[in-house]
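Example record used in the benchmark description.
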Amino acid sequence: MNHESVRIGVVGLGYVGLPLAVEFGKRYRTVGFDINPSRVRELARGRDSTLEVSRTELKEAKHLSYSSELADIRRCNVYIVTVPTPIDKYNRPDLTPLEKSSASVGKVLKKGDIVIYESTGVKKFAYPFSSVCPDCVSTKISLWATALSASIRVIRTTASLPSRR
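Model output (structure tokens):
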């Protein structure tokens, strides 16, 4: 993957995903994906009801588009999953959002793509990726190792990405 071919898909447009999508969208082709169509519509109109980013910041993200249709992230080759990982009253993580978003990304994932998990609420847990989405991958690697490896690759890649201005 060369720098010009990078297409970023940010899955989840909450308080972590939206600012990330906006920053990437200032320089790189980026699709912000959210399962909530009304959230996507408001962002496409230049409004963020959560006030995580300003109208000006949304306008500055000239390479950012929004979608609630899975097909619209199919052409991405870097996926950043930014869904919540809430915990219950016993401090057990609810992995449902992570499982569902992993299954969705798995439907459009291609050989050579990079997936990064940026999830709040749970720190340093190992969860077998193959049990989250058995059809997404052929090798059985822990989610922690996959996310760590992908993060290192992306950090190395983005450190030298040229500006698209």
